[in-house]
Amino acid sequence: MRNTKKFIASAAAIATLIGLAACGNGGGLSATVDTDTANAKGEVVFWGWGNGIKETIAAFEKANPNITVKYSSTGTGADTATALQNAIAAGKGAPDVVMLEDATVPQFVVDGSVVDLSQFGADKLKDDFAAGPWAKMLQEGKPYALPIDSSPEVFFYNKAVFDKAGVDGEAIKTWDDYYEAAKKVRALGGDYYIANSIDYQPFLAQVWQAGSQPFKVNGENITIDMNDEGIQKYIALQQKLIDEDLINPKITNWTDDWYRSLGDGTTASLTIGAWMPTDLETGAAAGKGNWRVAQLPQWNEGDEASSEDGGSALAITSQSKNTAAAYKFAEFLTHGDGAKVMADHGTFPATTKLLEDKDFQSKKNEYFGGQQVNKVLVEAAERKVSAFQYLPYNPYAQSKYGDDVVPAFQGKKTLKDAIAAYAKTLADYGTDQGYTVTVK
Amino acid sequence: MSDQTIHAPAGTAHSPEVRVNKHKADWRGWKFMWPFAVVFVFVFIVPILYTIYISFFQKKMIGGTKFVGVANYVRLFHDPNFWSSVGRVAMFTVVQVPIMLFLAAAMALALDSMKLHGTRFFRISTFLPYAVPAVVSTMIWSFMYGAKYGLVASINDLFGTNFDVLVPSVLLASIGNIVTWEFTGYNMLIFYSSLSTIPHSLYEAASIDGASEWDIVRKIKLPELKGSLAITVIFSIIGSFQLFNEPSIMQDMVPGNAITTYYTPNMYAYNLSFTGSQSNYAAALAITMAVITMVIAYIVQLKSMKEQMK
Fold this sequence. Notes:
The structure holds 2 protein chains of 2 kinds. By secondary structure, chain A is an alpha/beta fold. Chain A is 44% helix and 15% strand.
């Protein structure tokens, strides 16, 4: 029938129109960025996760009665990045302020989804933040986010298990010491291991600490070098641990098994970011009193190299219609009075003022057997950090790490081959996304 | 619709005026059709056309969105990750579907035999797993599967064994077990309802003629099941080609990343669009999978129709 044909034709036309419309507003740049923070008012939509947010918002609204903050808990860093990506693709629906994992900031800068905060004078806050977290906010010298926490990589260990194995946690100064300790812990038998297979973020943090710089991003050019001296040192150590069954391949970070093994001590230590204490207290309550924290083992005796693992920050989206109020809130939570509220609820702060606070440093933590945990963490935060960059497609890199590298921890291939294959996967993806990628 | 006038009784249908009627637009049918047609177009046709449309583009972080023609399909054709995921669900289908349908048919026959006590209780309890959301049942099973803290661990402790059902080599079978648990009851119900349409007088007549219980099953009940078998097979094939919930929930619970980002085609599509921002490529994958699934379902249907014709 003729009208059937017409019908199909018009349906196709509608579909095409919808398609074109959806493609049209991909970037979603707002025309004006309002920087008049003094007169900011109205509503700020905020996506984030973690402890102490509600209390911080209450404090902010009390101090700024003209502004209300509408908070949605978006779960985790990965979920938030995905949700933001969807809102950007749709051209609407993004919040004014968004919490991002530090490593995902670059990709939102590249596609213009977050605004340059130096318009609000954020570049002048440089000296108020610890060097490590601040450095991660910069893209071509300009801050695109404000750091919520600093996250130096540190060494957590279960003292009760270490004592039983005859290991002195305080005496582990180098990765060689760590290897010797791993053998003694494994000698306890059963499921006792010094660590489980390494996750993506600790992997990056540890190669970073070894002085490696696997990714160099310069505009549209990316250099991937997964073969430098730092990575080679890292591979040699991990391969030795894998070959001698000193690392548990059956437990993955953030699983129920992981928390349980941290609670009962069968996973006897962790090399992870300084934000871990609250996670340990809530996730592995059974381990209370047994855990201690120390500086990360070094590659050369006497060194004081550190690195960053994770961490989160606040950015303002380019879809925001109320940027002035958004910045005011972001500044309050990360740098202003809100930072103290966050710190009181377990966030390991990024501002030097809070880090150097005497009360903060001398606080004793019962979960860690009364240890002055913050003192150790602050010392780590103030250590030297070498230059490091994340890929502008960090979530992809993170998901592919599981596909390519983790099988090496189960002895299916050597870590060297796995990491070489991983470098190729990342390079292929970068090329596909229009970057000029060089693999070394 | 208006075609009826043409097939009017022979003799009167030969006048030329009636023929003309055939080509005249008749809107009466559409008046009844439009509520359905509008919904159908917007929830079914438009999304499919849109998916096909975006599958011809590529969005790059550098360079934005560009028309690339069939490049996404060519790339998909050469993508070993995609084919390994298709192979995995195909193998899953070949092994899991027959086991599940055999169990479902056996249960339906048992319930229909009228020789069991508590038929109603068994009917509802075998169907119950289908009412449990897949996310919940996957989590329950995964906790049981745990070789360190789960039920498997307790069994290992008790008997001094060392089973681990989550190692990569048997993982697919473990997922198959969950899916079988979830859907056997559902298929059983389809079989059972077609069995219950058989008039009981037929059984009585058969037993008077000296047929044993086994003869009745073989000669009366099983032929009756054939029709519903075709439906359940097609549903099951479509279901297992779309395998997603179980492996993606288990991904975070299974040690050592045994479930990759491209474990099943659906998971691959999901990860491509949400962690890789390659939704155009994922659209090409979705269309290709839809075609593959339709072709397989169509072949099965043709085959079963031929069988029934015999």
